[in-house]
Amino acid sequence: MTMPETKVLPNPRAPEGRQPASAPAAGPRGKVPPRRRPRAWRWTDLAEIAGALGASAALTWMIFGRLLPFRVMPIAYVLLAYVLFLPIYWFVIRDGQGATAAKDRLVTVLIATGALFAFAPIVFVVGYVVKRGAEVLRPNFFTETMQIVGPLSKATEGGALHSIIGTLEQLALATAIAVPLGLLTAVYLSEIQGPLARPVRLVADAMTALPSIVAGLFIFSIVIKPHIWLQSGIVGSLALAILMLPTVTIAAEQVLHVVPGGLREAALALGAPYWRSVLMVVLPTARAGLSTAVILGMARVVGETAPVLMTTGGTTVMNVNPFSGHQDNLPLFVFTQIRSSQENQVDRAWAGALVLLAVVLLLFVLARIVGSASPGRRRLRVPRRRASRTTSDGGNPS
Amino acid sequence: MTVPEVDQSAAAEAAPAVGGVLEGVQVSCWFGARKVLEGVDIKMDAGVVTALIGPSGCGKSTFLRTLNRMHELVPIATLAGSVLLDGHDIYGAGLRLTEVRRRIGMVFQKPNPFPAMTIADNVAAGLRLTGRKVRDRDELIETSLRRAGLWNEVRNRLGAPAGGLSGGQQQRLCIARSLAVSPDVLLMDEPCSALDPTSTRRIEETILELKDQVTIVIVTHNMQQAQRVSQHCAFFLAAEDEPGRVVEQGPTEQIFSDPHDPRTADYVNGRFG
């Protein structure tokens, strides 16, 4: 493949080609050899794939269109074409480049197919939700509630403001409950490594697989059943916090594990008590990772339906107080709407699903930004911190 | 904390006349059941740089870590004997663990500035970490950086993250960080092994400038470095399956020019190890 290239190139440069070879940087005559990209696709590679694809497509058409006496589904065309493509491609490559290269290409094709299969469902799910949701999503979806919307109202009427408010409040409360507990547990597991570390880690690992409806049932039976608290946003938050706790704990513990031990030693060697070295060195060093852990926990529970189904009550009217009265939230909104027999309500559910998807996407993007952009953020923050430090220094807690 | 409020900056400015006297008395160390060090007696005088030399695995780093109670960070580590700082046993009841480590600072083999802090915050980290106050924090930062020979290089970027410094600068930043809590003794565990020759020379100059203010104990694998910076020298050696011992100690000049023990002569002349 590269043979003709190397044969062609030296010829025009033959007279002076040898001497400047040792000093290519000088390039007085601008005769810099063209840059070569050893890993780039070559036209012959593409031609081989295109040829193999064309051959398999033609063969498929011949089998299904001319030889078989009955018609088949279009998907069968694709499947057969793919199955035929593999041996054809293998033969083409083996003929040109040998059996090893052929095996390599064949495995590459198989792996690429696998990656495509893993990626396709996400595209289909997101694409379908966006398509269905965008049909009925109007600005009033974010400003109105379902209070005065009847079962026969159009899908574009009404809105999910009460559900969005409920989701945000319940998520905030669940985070406020689960994150301190999760971080403290992570510090216990990773820094203190007490005698209970092993069982606690085991339980936390097992709890990540806790079915979410069990968390809802648990809170229902210990809080709502004995009438300690009636169905409301905060009870839903308790159920969500149970689901969030192990996720935050495990993620935070893994983040703390990668903080270099040398930093702990350096802090201790300065005469720091252990708790101060954890608080002022270990946790700040892992700050970015810990933020990611928190957001992962939030993303884990924001779309949960089962636990809030039993605990928040669900409602169609605005209730901004999470501590009293029934409250709605987005997964619940989707659930109640899509169960309806009315086509317009089902359509409205897709708008709710789209908003929920956007919230989850926002959380994950936030996690990536917080997790990766820490040095830049620090540099921006430093002047302000130093300014405030110099005025209020000496006030360090002792 | 119980530490009385001291005017750190004034103390640092006046530069303590001499460091503390550190003395290991019959120190033996174990990791679990394995004895790695036996009966070490070394007196590390104020105003003198003491070098600990010897092949790898002979227990000199372990000994260094017993001197500021870092040895016990390994859960299975135990020891016998005592370490006296100005006559008081640092493992005794009279001295608090944190106070011992504050007075006996340590610089590690690998530069380990706190990555989440700025250069200035790194220098002053010891204050926050020990919960102490100073009247003039900026003054202390400048004094400590000057003593570590880093001030001129970082004076214009004190607010920058410490991770942006070169390896040699980071190591001097770690020295400045140790000096900021005004220790009596500074332990250095192969402080130059990860550095290039130029940075090494800067660190050695720093050591020579500091030696009148702080007692310095340095572990090094570099014979020339031991000769250049130290006045007292102890040679550690561990035979196979035996704990490490001090084979010979004395003035550096004599250890290198006229050692009594043939094993010392072999080692300092590069015939083994």
From TrEMBL, chain A:
Ranges where the record places region Disordered: 1-37, 378-398
Transmembrane is among the record's keywords: yes
Top-level lineage group: Bacteria
Source organism per UniProt: Planotetraspora phitsanulokensis
Pfam families linked: BPD_transp_1
Keywords assigned by UniProt, alphabetized: Cell membrane, Membrane, Phosphate transport, Transmembrane, Transmembrane helix, Transport
Sequence ranges assigned to domain ABC transmembrane type-1 in this UniProt record: 164-367
Residues that span the membrane, as ranges: 46-68, 74-93, 105-130, 171-190, 202-224, 230-252, 273-299, 349-371
NCBIfam families, per database record: 3a0107s02c (TIGR00974)
Protein name: Phosphate transport system permease protein PstA
PANTHER family: PHOSPHATE TRANSPORT SYSTEM PERMEASE PROTEIN PSTA
Localization: Cell membrane
Record's GO cellular component terms: plasma membrane
InterPro entries reported for this sequence: MetI-like, MetI-like_sf, Phosphate_PstA, Phosphate_transprt_permease
Family membership: Belongs to the binding-protein-dependent transport system permease family. CysTW subfamily.
Basic residues composition bias: residue spans: 378-388
Function, as annotated: Part of the binding-protein-dependent transport system for phosphate; probably responsible for the translocation of the substrate across the membrane.
Alphabetical GO biological process terms: phosphate ion transmembrane transport
PROSITE patterns reported for this sequence: ABC_TM1
Entry membrane topology: Multi-pass membrane protein
Predominant place of localization: membrane
Presence of keyword Cell membrane: yes
Gene3D superfamilies named in the record: MetI-like (1.10.3720.10)
GO molecular function, a single term: phosphate transmembrane transporter activity
Automatic annotation (TrEMBL), chain B:
GO CC terms: membrane
Keyword annotations of the record: ATP-binding, Nucleotide-binding, Translocase, Transport
Biological-process GO terms, alphabetical: phosphate ion transmembrane transport
MF annotations from Gene Ontology: ATP binding; ATP hydrolysis activity; phosphate transmembrane transporter activity
The encoding gene: pstB_1
Domain ABC transporter residues, every copy: 22-268
Protein name in the entry: Phosphate import ATP-binding protein PstB
Matches recorded under PROSITE patterns: ABC_TRANSPORTER_1, ABC_TRANSPORTER_2
InterPro entries (UniProt xref): AAA+_ATPase, ABC_transporter-like_ATP-bd, ABC_transporter-like_CS, P-loop_NTPase, PstB-like
Pfam family name, one: ABC_tran
Keyword Transport: yes
Species in which this protein is naturally found: Planotetraspora phitsanulokensis
